[in-house]
Each structure stands twice: as C-alpha cells, then as structure tokens.
Amino acid sequence: MINTMKLSIAPYLLLVSLFVPCVSAHADGRIKGTGGVSSVSGAGGGGLIAWATLTSLASEQQRGFTAFTTYTDLDDFTLEVAGAAVNFNDRVELSYARQRFTIKANDAQIAQDKYGLKVRVAGDLLYGKLPQIAAGIERNRLLDPATARAVGAVDDNGTDLYVSAARAWIDGPFHRTSMLNVNLRYSKANQYGLLGYGGDDRDTRVQVEVAAAMFLTRSIAIGAEYRQKPDNLSALREDEATDVFVAWFPNKHFSVTGAYVMLGEIAGAAQQNGFYLSIQGAL
To answer: Which tens digits make up the pLDDT trace of 246-276?
Structure first.
C-alpha cells in the first residue's frame, strides 16, 4: 500500500536537512515504546491523536528524530501522510506532516500541511507523583481550499491548542506495562481540517481525546483511541473517531502500527471504516 503514495515530501526533506546534524545518533535513553508512534498530525502519540509523550526516545541532554509514513484506506476515501519530528532534551517537540486525502470515486485530492509544537511542562510518564503533562499547538494550512469553501467552511487555515496528560505503569493490569492518556483540545477543524475550519453551525470548540495502551510483550502493544470532533457544518454531519491498534517495536529505532479505524460520516458518506498502517523510524 505504501508504494501507492503520491505525497510531495519536499517540506519533510527540508525538515530532515535542518535538524539531522543536531540529532544524537543514539537518542535511546528512555524505555522502548515510551515515545509512542506518530499521529496523523505529525506529533508523537498514537495514530489519531497526539499524546503527552514526546517523539523518539530522547531523554535529557539528548536530541531525537523520527520520520514516518502512514496510509489509511476507508470505504470511500484514502488518507496518506508523511512527516517528521524532532525532540529536544525530552522537553520540546517540533513536528511537520503533509496530508493528502483522496476521494476514490473521482480521484479528487485535498492536501494539508500541519506544523506542531509540543512542550512537556510538568511530571513524568513513569516516575513521580504527577503524570506527564504537555501543552501543544498545531498550525494547519489547507492547500486545496475549494471543497472547504463549497461546504461552508469559514477559513482554510486554523490553529489547534491542546493540553495532554499521560501516565504509564510498568506493573499495570495483568502485570503488563500499560498507559493512559487524556487530552483537552480547542479546535475549529472540520474533518481534521481537510474540510476547512469553522462553519455556519458553531459547535463546541473544546473536545476530549482519550488513548489507552498495554504491552503484551516487550515489543508488541495493543490499544485504542477516541477523539471527539466539532460539528461545524450544518450541511454535513461529523462524527467522533475511534481506533483499535497493534504496534510492533522490534527495536528502539523502528515501529510498525496497524489499526482498524472508525471515522463515522465524512462529507456525506456514512460509516467510513477501514485500515491504517504506519511505519516510523527513529534516531
């Protein structure tokens, strides 16, 4: 499936060229898997949402880099994403992703750029009394705004703000390493921004996002994610998004994630369910 991707990756390659010289060759100070994978926005976390964890395995005094590619095949649409992120000292994460959404019926495409900044502000994922708490901002720019304008979106760009808290337990349920993450997000995005931002039917701007994961072995984790989304367009219904996933971490520098995603109605097409595959490399 990945071979079918037609993404323009020039911005992604630019990010690599800017940051690779300052990335530690072996930023593997944390426990395998605690950096999560790459979300569709480019930020470190799960597939659907960013988590409070920062990308790669960089700890204090280290820098880490990740690059990823993702393909999602739904009933009537596909979504292809490529991107990269940099972690500075397990404190600051910068990310970028290019999304390309394709309508199967006519091969029409919508592209979007997402730029992210995430800062760990308190706590630790594994240790101490406080969970790991991070604050993030995502700046989104729609490259093909015609469809968004046609359905009533107010803007072709937007900014998401979120606060995230995560805690992992080495000896969790069933004596397995487990994690729980909860986000509060402020967003005007219609279908992750692919249909623009805002609309004539102003919905609540604050949404809840939740993720849970458990390691079955030291290399295989399973979990689920839930994401509320605003419903801003009176002409088109927007549903909540969920997934169930399996992630494989054969080593600290590579991961493969597969998921079954349930995105509900998209642009008038009901019950958009399908499969998601993401590959990530990390330094």
So the answer is: 999 999 899 999 999 999 999 999 999 999 9
Which residue numbers in the chain have pLDDT < 70?
A: 1-29, 203
Indicate the pTM of the whole model.
0.89
Contact yes or no for 263/73 (Cβ under 8 A)? no
d(CA 262, CA 242): 5
Pick from 65, 66, 118, 54: nearest CA to 90? 54
- Cα torsion through 73, 69, 44, 103, rounded to 10: -30
- In the beta sheet, which residues pair with residue 50? 45
- Of the candidates 129, 138, 166, the residue with the CA atom closest to the CA atom of residue 45: 166
The answer to whether the beta carbons of residues 69 and 99 sit under 8 Å apart is no
CA distance 201 to 189: 13
The pLDDT score that the predictor gives to residue 174 is 94
Does the domain at 2-282 match CATH 2.40.160.40? Answer given as: yes
CA atoms of 156 and 24, how far apart (whole Å): 37
Residues 165-211: tens digit of each pLDDT: 999 999 999 999 999 999 999 999 999 999 999 998 876 789 999 99
- Tell me if 243 sits within 8 A of 270, measured CB to CB: no
What residue segments make up the domains of the chain, in order of their start? 2-282
Report d(CA 166, CA 67) in Å as an integer.
Answer: 23
Listed residue (103, 53, 94, 50) closest to 209, CA to CA: 50
